[in-house]
Specification:
Layout: H1 4-26, H2 39-50, H3 54-64, H4 72-84, H5 88-100, H6 106-122, H7 126-137, H8 143-157, H9 160-174, H10 179-195, H11 199-211, H12 218-229, H13 233-246, H14 251-265, H15 268-281, H16 285-296, H17 302-314, H18 316-319, H19 324-328, H20 332-351, E1 356-358, E2 364-365, E3 381-383, H21 389-398
Antiparallel strand pairs: 1-2, 1-3
The protein binds zinc ion.
Residues 358, 360-361, 363, 372, 374-375, 377, 380 line the site of zinc ion.
Length: 399
């Protein structure tokens, strides 16, 4: 099927044919000269296109039109157009053709190298792209863009140490702080170290993460996790409470950990008091506490159970299905049983719908992702605080 790039190639052949014809007609040429023979070439190129042989047409174009000051922009335009259309092999062919010319200026060579690196990136050839961006990052006018792309590649490859170095260079060159991004690179290293049982290394990485601004509470979460693993419950709880105080939304991740820590310590009474005083300060947190408890199946702690009951009684969508007040007239046991049934149904629904959503691009997922896989921003996901009934209903309609 003819594509945008096929039309561009066809347009280029026609333009070249017209230019050749005009030169032959009006140019200062001797009468005895033969008519411009290259026209045959243009027609041959067009013929390839008409037969949908884009590759042959492209090769023909590249052989006919050498890269020089007058035509270089056309070559770049064509290459970038192919890349944008996802025809990366063709884009690579064009940009390699530019680089192969021995006589182009250094600046244009850099431009072609940068374009070729982006082609490789688009084709998923990360190693090749990385090599080229690394070369451009050493000193060219594409230094900043090359470092930005390198950070992206290292993130994909989980080469966090390299990502830190590229990020720091970028900070120096770009003049803007990448503190949060670099802090997360250190946190990635810390989590890997902690996962391998090397807590000393993990703590050092967390320290590095917390040296930057703006701060992330992810480092504190890692330290709290290490404290729990090493039976230092007092430190773990102190950290979890600080995390929630700084970013209330993190209770979605911290609540199950807090409950598990109090249970291990054998003092759920302490948990009840701590949560109650937190809710006294932040009554708005009640919904998120309830939702987190429902999703993680946390029960048997009076303050949490009260939040869940309140949540169920106040959820407008539920009123269409069940009248809890009517049920509760049957006595305390009937009331408790009714709540329990609704709660377990909600828990099933909640695990089938996304719990976190990126506030930048809307990407949603079941577990908290520190870097959004869609827009690549760090720490932009926020937890839902209610069961997403509309998503559930939509799914049941489409399935
Ligand atoms: Zn996003």
């Amino acid at each position: 099927m003819p594509t945008e790039s096929t039309f561009l190639l066809a347009g280029l052949f026609l333009l070249l044919a017209a230019a050749g014809w005009a030169l032959g007609r009006f140019g200062e040429r001797d009468e005895e000269d033969a008519p411009p023979p290259l026209n045959v070439d243009y027609l041959k190129g067009l013929n390839f296109l008409l037969n949908e042989q884009t590759d042959q047409a492209l090769e023909h174009f590249l052989q006919m039109v050498r890269v020089d000051d007058k035509t270089i922009e056309t070559h770049f335009a064509l290459g970038n157009l192919f890349r944008r259309r996802g025809e990366v092999d063709r884009a690579i062919r064009i940009h390699q053709n530019i680089i192969a010319r021995p006589d182009i200026a250094a600046e244009q060579r850099d431009q072609a190298l940068y374009a070729l690196a982006k082609d490789y990136l688009g084709a998923g050839l990360l190693d090749r792209a990385e090599n080229m961006f690394a070369r451009l990052a050493e000193g060219s006018r594409y230094q900043v863009q090359a470092l930005q792309n390198l950070c992206g590649i290292y993130e994909q490859e989980k080469e966090w140490q390299h990502a830190i170095e590229a990020g720091q260079k970028l900070e120096q060159l770009g003049g803007r702080s990448l503190g949060l991004q670099i802090a997360h690179y250190y946190c990635e290293l810390a989590e890997a170290a902690a996962g391998g049982g090397d807590y000393a290394a993990a703590r050092q990485y967390v320290k590095n993460a917390q040296a930057g601004r703006p701060r992330t509470m992810r480092g504190a979460l890692i330290r709290a996790h290490i404290a729990r693993e090493t039976d230092d419950y007092k430190t773990a709880l102190r950290l979890y409470h600080r995390i929630i105080e700084e970013h209330t939304y993190l209770i979605a991740v911290a609540l199950p950990e807090i409950v598990a820590t109090y249970e291990r310590e054998g003092s759920t009474g302490g948990l009840d008091r701590a949560l109650q005083s937190m809710l006294d300060k932040n009554p708005d947190m009640s919904t998120l506490v309830a939702y987190t408890a429902i999703v993680n199946d946390i029960g048997g702690i009076p303050v949490i159970d009260r939040c869940v009951e309140q949540y169920i009684l106040n959820e407008p969508t539920l009123h269409e299905f069940v009248d809890l007040r009517e049920v509760s007239q049957g006595g305390a046991d009937a009331h408790r049983n009714a709540l329990e049934k609704v709660r377990s149904a909600l828990s099933k629904l909640a695990t089938a719908t996304p719990r976190y959503q990126c506030k930048e691009c809307g990407f949603s997922s079941q577990r908290l992702l520190w870097q959004c896989p869609s827009c690549r921003n760090w720490e932009t996901q926020r937890p839902a605080s209610r069961v997403q009934f509309d998503t559930v209903l939509q799914r049941s309609i489409t399935h």
